Description:
Chain A is an alpha/beta fold and 471 residues long. Chain A is built from 14 helices and 12 strands. Chain B folds into 3 domains: 2-62, no CATH class; 87-341, Aspartate Aminotransferase, domain 2 (3-Layer(aba) Sandwich); 352-462, Alpha-Beta Complex (Aspartate Aminotransferase, domain 1), CATH 3.90.1150.
Amino acid sequence: MVNRLGKNTHPYIPNSLPEVKQEMMQEIGIKSIDELYVDIPEKYRLKKSLNLPEALSEFEVKKHVEALLSKNRTCSDMPVFLGAGCWPHYVPAVVREIVQRGELLTCYTPYQPEIAQGMLQALFEYQSMICELTGMEVTNCSIYDWASALGEAARMAARLTRRSEILIPKIIHPERAATLHVYTEPAGVSVNQIAYDSETGQISLEDLRSKISDKTAAVYIENPSYLGFIETQVDKISKETHEHGALFIVGVDPTSLGILKPPGEYDADIVVGEAQPLGNSMNFGGPLSGIFACRDDLKLIRQMPGRITGMTTTLDGGRQGFCMALQTREQHIRREKATSNICSNEALCAVASAVYMALLGPEGLRELGETIMYKANYAMHLLSKIDGVKVPVFKSAHFKEFTVNFDDSGLSVKEVHEKLLQRRIHGGKDVSKELPELGETALYCVTEIHSREEIERLAAALNEILDGRRR
Amino acid sequence: MIFNIGRNGRRGHVLPKVGEKVRHTVGDVSMLIPKNMQRKSQLRLPELSEVEAVRHFTRLSEMNYGVDSGLYPLGSCTMKYNPKINELLADLSTINTVHPYQDESTVQGILEILYRLECWLAEITGTYKVCLQPAAGAHGEFLGTLLMRAYHQLNGEYERRNEVIVPDSAHGTNPASAAMAGFNEVVAPSDGDGCVNLAALKAAVSERTAGLMLTNPNTLGIFEKNIEEIARIVHDAGGLLYYDGANLNPILGKARPGDMGFDIVHMNIHKTFGTPHGGGGPGAGPVGVSEELAKFLPVPRIVFDDERYRLDYDEPYSIGKIRSFYGNVAVLLKAYAYILSLGGEGLMEVAEVSVLNANYLMKKLKEIKGLTLPYNSEKPRKHECVFSAKPLKNDTGVSALNIAKRLLDYGLHAPTIYFPLIVDEALMIEPTETFEKEELDRFVEAVRKISEEAYTKPEIVSKAPHNTAVSRLDEVKASHPRTMALSWRMHLKRNRHDL
């Protein structure tokens, strides 16, 4: 028979070699592979070839993809001051090297723990280090991203309290809020927003008190907030929440936790967040890696979504080892009664985060937080000196993101953005549509990768743009 | 354990310095943080040099088996070879340092790739429009069931249509996904051939039916030959037909779910399109839909106006967002390269050889004592076959679990076991197209030896594995409230160490 791939076998398909096929067909007792497809009704057998490009050699694929990707501009071509849920951080070479090791890269979910101890231990170490950072006791192997982790947390809170309302801050990432809505609505859970103090951006305790009730399943806050400032009334919010029998859910950017009080220390019941900044590249927004942690409370643990790795021993008790724990919560056993339908998660991103946290250690994570805060506050300082610009909008301490308002400049965020882009600088995210009460405001992000020169270039460029305008 | 190695003061990575000028301008950064929000507790993370960290994680990788190590015949998981070139491409700085909110003019390259991939996946599945956003197969299922919900809501029938029908051979994610979208599960039993029982399906559908979730070929590896009738029954009842794409691999280029009447189709990029599983993820679970349902898909859509690629958020019927941004782009990029490396003809070859391999294994394994092939043993399978080790268990006491563990001793990965639920002592075997005949023969030989061992010295099988990094683990202890240790600090606490 003729091989449809021509003379050569395909490098990925060893048995495409015609004589091997022949041997195997003989063993099965068929003359043609089509005999194995007889049960597909004739009318559904595809008569035409798929309208796809012709196969390319590896070299051609590489050239083609590289050429397309070279149309992108990156953080190396221009300083990019964007954050808002996906952040530019450096990924150490060691992290890349470890997650590219074939044994870790190409394994499945560790269903056979005896030959998956490496992956299981790495995931256990990820869980353990996230627990140290957040001050919680239990962390799962990851959820898709922060937004879906929040959705799962809200559903978990509703199941635990048998209540049907989640309170969230008015200042929240719009995609997170949208995802939360989609996750909670089918469960009959409503989402209501808590107002903020117009001076400081901090949650209005008054509004929280007026909205919280015995229907409230959970109160959710973010720290640092979506707009980058540190929420300081955490103890009061936590107390108010618990007094009403609701759960306290806190969303975090883990790069802040080397210097900020961990949510475990203000009695968070569930912590969610984004592990992408811990050793994972931005990749145009995915994969991300959702953090999901809770307190050491069996009621909570039993309602956790997703895979959890546990430490155990061999059956003979002789050696320490690791395996998946509490699988009876999960879909492959509990089916429609599972705590979530999640199966595949972002395990390898979690491993990357484990390697990253191990490389930095306690001192490195503290330094990371400080470095970011220094640089972001330096940028705020320089920008606040520019006429026509208000930085930040809220009088609160800011970590790595901050708001820049252009109302007094007579220019819109969009106009400023385009002028910056002409100068090979990418400004922050335009938030004027999602939070119209803030006027022409953008959300800027500065991390450890931004150099002093780049920050000064941004300030100079803004000065020039607005200066031209003022004259 | 990483917490037990290293030494106080060691560092594995140094960050860029904060210069004097910045320090001077900002002042002491710790003074900027309100006192009550400063971290005062010690951060108990390991302190390792770079060298120790590399050695630690390298040692862990050596205690792990991947597709690069050998046959990985996990049924329904499609553990095929993951091409190395794709890893290299997904790690180019022209993608990994691109931010999702960058100006559209600066991301034309990646938008073009994603746009084309959507078109290719629509072509492969015979659907009208594909959304790349779901992060995994189950996430795609969740989106699919949300689309069902949105469709019936728009028709004013959602209140009534609250049931999703799922065959008894279905993956656990199907009922779990339906439940997440607020539906009740109705189970449709299989017939003697391992296919959906048509009479039972007719009885199950009603004006309450929102849809049917079907895997085709199903989890027994059998093509649902009555798919036309199934589609008619579900559609006549006003329901939608959902295709679980876990088993798409064997029909690539041979048949398309869209042509069979499926309204919603999810794909598992990390199965069918050769991207690595990474120990559980990241994967990607794009969803293709019929024209009627396209308006409900999440925003943004990637659109092309003959000149530029854009992200379009303007769709009033959209269900909204199921995650942030646009999908697991790095994974999707690998799928793009995979499809280019194979082309249409190559994908058909993938399908055919995956089926050839499965039927070859099935033929050889049928000859082994103690194993039977339930549900019409003469019928060809597609990508996988499911054996029952019940006779072996009755004869010798050796279970499917024991066979699985003993296979590890032979340097192979085990099949999926105890699934689907409709087969006792199930061994669900999917070889994929990327393993050579010699490796398949090695597997058959190992199973044959295990059967012999079971009949002659069963304890060597029932106590397996013996040659792995650790022997069989105590999974009960790992989940018991008194002994569970789900993190290092929990372990220390349980053991009454000071924390």
